[in-house]
Queue: 4 jobs
Job 1
Amino acid sequence: MSNETAEASPTRSGPPRWLRPLGARLVFLLVVFLAFESLLTPLLTAAARNPVTGILAGVAAAATALYAYAKLVSWLEERDTPEISRATARPQLIRGTLIGVGLFCLTLALMFVSNAYRLHGGSFGDMIGTFGLMLGVAVIEELLFRGVLFRIVEERWGSTIALIVSGVLFGGLHLLNPDATVWGALAVAIEGGLLAGAAYAATRTLWLPIGIHLGWNFAESGIFGATVSGADTTVGGLFTGTPHGPAILSGGEFGPEASIWAVLIGGVAAYLLVRKARKRGNWR
């Protein structure tokens, strides 16, 4: 066969010139995924009131966000997206979810010891619906804050600046919640933002931070019925719970994430993951 009849291999179509600079790419992706969060979170919350629709909505929202991330990043950066590779999805997601559940259970155990939390009866159906809600939220927020913000800031200024910037903005977003406080937002920045950023840096996959985020939020609200980050949108869990005693121990109306115990547990876990990232040569 002659060269004239050979088919040319397909080439990936790149973005327009104005989207190629790092800053433009960052802003564009932030706007897209902030829009995803703004549009999908109310729908997820409404769907979570029924266990079946809650699970279906959570899976659909997660799949949509992951598909959008893969397509947009591949187009903008002209590369594949190994950070959400299917090969690492199952083990890292399971591992992260178990870590998240374990860290919150340890936090709650310390709250029980300090007489800062009381449990009452709840609903199995509410637990299932809340799992769907938290699945969608975890995927969307981790794509936004770690897949976009942390990763692109790190590309220019390194891992330390990326960890601080993504953590602070992640905590700051929670100031929009109804019962938000400055201390609560700072606590979330440490135990959530730094922890998830360190998890991404240690593994270079988004599945571990997604799993940790999902496991923590699901245990917090879906199992133990606590308020998550000052938000009043969750439908409940297997149990219902009420804070008791000083807010520094119980978290008060913001929920357990504003407890000093949560900050200590999340902060120590983040430190250990940063150490692992450095040991593996993943700290840039």
Job 2
Amino acid sequence: MVTTQPTDGIEVAYERHGDGQPLICLHGGMAPQQYWNPVLPHFEEYSAVIPQRPGFGTCLDDQAETRADEVLNREAEYVRRLVDAVDGDPILFGHSFGALTAVESATDAPVDAVIAYEPAVLPDDYREEADLADRMAALIDDGDRHEAVKRYIEQVLHPDGIDDLDAWLAEWPVWPDCVDLAEEVVRMNRAVEQYQLPGRLGVDAPVLVLTGTNGPDFLRESARAVHDSLPRSRLVEFDGISHSGPGEAPALIASAVKTFLGNA
């Protein structure tokens, strides 16, 4: 683990694998750093940089007090510090909330390209009724942290329903350790619920927006909206792939990414 010296209270910690151009991999809401393990063998020509997001291991000193409307800005600033810490202009590769953070970071960071798999953006009509953060917070206040995290997993990972969630969780590698992240996930969800996609995102670097047909419909809709708001963007939709695309089908995703980077 590499750790930079704190600047303005921000300590940046990350793992680095291999040599080559830095490929900064930003995980999503409930995923640990290990989420990227299936992806790394497909990018051996790059130097994979995997940070711990604020609140997920290495954090800002005052992360627990960070308001929801500050979360995305603080995470984007964290990524910008990371961009400054690595040699050369990196590529940002983000999944879900990590994808939204990658796009926001690239508005003011020297990066070569951005890869965004289903950025955590809510369509306007969906966002206006979103209440996941409130429902999770109420369960946490009642002392039921496990149920709070289950509500997140149901809505984000299984929006079409699941027959036996407990059986699925029993096979999920990060369960139940991820319950420790409950408060951070509430803050993250509030940030997502408050985020409004601008008509134009000021990202100069080329961006590849990825989505899958087996993920939530609202995220596929948002992926198209993010694509439309970017000046230099390509949209690729994978048939039969879910919201967990990079971990679920790493070879397929990597092939699309490399084709894009070769053309960009």
Job 3
Amino acid sequence: MENQRMTHIAVERNRRKQMNEYLSVLRGLMPHSYVQKGDQASIIGGAINYVKELEQKLHFLGGNKHYTTSRDNSIMVSENHELAMADIEVTMVESHANLKIRSKRRPKQLLKMVSGLQSLRLTILHLNVTTVHQIVLYSLSLKVEDDCKLSSVDEIATAVNQMLGRIQQEAVLI
């Protein structure tokens, strides 16, 4: 009986060691912003969110174009012509918004977008930029400030679309 107990303890110790090694590798594969704490639940939750974002980037960069409004308070606006303006996806939870923009690369586009978002009273908390040839995907985590006049995903998507239209017009004039 004692020998069986000691075997069980050794097996359990090895399982925990292996689990901790896997969690350490998993944590190392993700950007630091996805794991705020070092506990197992935070690492796994961060990994789930990171994989979801990578799936969205893959989908976005793949060129699938459509317009959807879903029950989870999100909206995706896509242009019908080939990336003339941008594909925009906005999701909101309370006073935080996630914004994904896929567009052609243009001179000083990121600088103008940051400035434009600030003027809309949308504070950038996190920004990720992915490029493939002349296509760029911006993934932004935003804080909707109390004095922001935009209160829905539709309003944010429309304002961002208008801002990108101005940026495109300026790029054509250069």
Job 4
Amino acid sequence: MEWETIEVAREDHVAIVSFNRPEALNALSTQMAKDLINVLGYLEEKKDVWAAVLTGGKSRAFCVGADLKERKNMDTEQMKRQRALFVKAFKTVMNFPKPLIAAVHGYALGGGFEFALGCDFIIADETAVFGLPEVTLAIIPGGGGTQNLPRIIGKHRAKELIFTGRRISAPEAAAWGIVNRVVPEGELEKTYRELMKEITQNGPIALQQAKRAINFGVEVELDTGMAFEAECYNVCLTTEDRNEGLRAFNEKRKPVYKGC
């Protein structure tokens, strides 16, 4: 399948999802939001896709946030409809049930930073720049920035970044715990391919259940989280992949998982 503003490539059990508006530094347009929702919905249903990477493709930016040129001629009702669509796109990223990693090259600003924050974690190269500049335009982050960023780095540091609208480099983002790892320019693609190969050698159902357990568990008190973890574990317990994992361990060979 093809989409107007998103490119999707497949490598074994991995989908590489790339924003494809390089002429606009991958600014988030109405069409790009629609395409992203449709792409992730399509990949969610593909049983042979076990994990995905979100990238900026060939652009010198990951995503610079909302396309303000598109927005300048909108009336209030059109803007409200677009905002609802954008919120749906951000939630689609956050709720994607399979591992979804952001690989950031260049600018990740506003909604672009929020898309990255909505992924399971971020890797970046040395060119990456992160920021939530919305207050400089008299608005606030509206794609989860005020919610996801404090959960990652604490509310005080999040307030500093959001209140100032300041941009930070990849090394600073890594030091603050926003980015998992920073690699030299030109090595990002190699790095995420190696990382996704490492992830997808594992049981795909187990990956999804581990993600569910973590995402739900961090929002509740410990006993409830432990009970939910047990439910997620039990989902894995009755799968053929679990039996294959045990057989492979005892036969001292690499398991062959099928996602069932």
